[in-house]
Amino acid sequence: MTVTIGEMADGFYVADNGPGIPEADREAVFDAGYSTSTAGTGLGLRIVEQITDAHGWTVDVTDSTTGGSRFEISGVDFID
């Protein structure tokens, strides 16, 4: 799997070329305890959402151009 990090006008993204997240599950992935893996805790993306909320940012998941998932963090104020 390849992970790519990039800039957006008001934030940044983290994308991969993995299997992706079905559109029907995209909101649920941020719920505490949600996991598609028996070995997962379902806390990782919940923690990401809590961190972005604490900063006044938003996190959204969409399709990556490389076939996997893309997590977009927006509302970020960059410091020069």
From TrEMBL:
Superkingdom in the source lineage: Archaea
Class of this enzyme: transferase
Pfam families recorded: HATPase_c (PF02518)
GO biological process: phosphorelay signal transduction system
UniProt keyword annotations, A-Z: Kinase, Transferase, Two-component regulatory system
Residue intervals of the Histidine kinase domain: 1-74
Catalytic reaction annotation: ATP + protein L-histidine = ADP + protein N-phospho-L-histidine
InterPro entries, sorted: HATPase_C_sf, HATPase_dom, His_kinase_dom, Sensor_HK_Regulatory, Sig_transdc_His_kin-like_C
Enzyme Commission identifier(s): 2.7.13.3
GO-annotated molecular function: protein histidine kinase activity
PANTHER family, A to Z: HISTIDINE KINASE 1, TWO-COMPONENT HISTIDINE KINASE
UniProt protein name: histidine kinase
